[in-house]
Amino acid sequence: MAEEISRVPYERLVQLIEQRDRVLADLQDASIVEEADKVVIRKLAAYDELLTRRMAELKTEASEALHKMYASRQQKRAYESEMENSYFYDKKR
Question: What distance in Å separates the CA atoms of residue 41 and residue 47, rounded to the nearest whole number?
Fold first, then answer.
């Protein structure tokens, strides 16, 4: 599963986590938790660290991409502002 989760799109991970939260909320609302429910809870808990790690990786990737976009935008603005009042002259050789 660890290798597979790196190929899962962000949106699918969000859906999975939301579904997991709904299942756990339903189990919390139940007055009696049966053994089968406990098995489900243990299986879900086993994936918590894996999901958390992947979401952190995605967050880091997004942060780096935003940083690159910001740096590129800053560089473009600096270049454009320098060229705003400049003139080019051709000389005959």
Answer: 10
Q: Are 23 and 40 in contact (CB under 8 A)?
A: yes
Whole-angstrom distance between the N-terminal and C-terminal Cα of the chain? 69
Q: Which residue has the tokens 């740096």?
A: 71
Whole-angstrom distance, CA of residue 46 vs CA of residue 29:
22
Containing 62, the helix (H) or strand (E) segment is helix 48-83
- Asked whether 51 and 16 are in contact (CB, 8 A), the reply is yes
Question: For residue range 10-61, what is the model confidence (pLDDT) as tens digits?
Answer: 888 889 889 888 888 888 887 787 888 888 888 888 888 888 888 899 999 9
The mean pLDDT of 74-82, rounded to a whole number, is 74
- To the nearest 10°, report the CA torsion of 58, 60, 65, 69: 140
More confident residue, 6 or 63: 63
Calpha distance 74→72 (Å, rounded)? 5
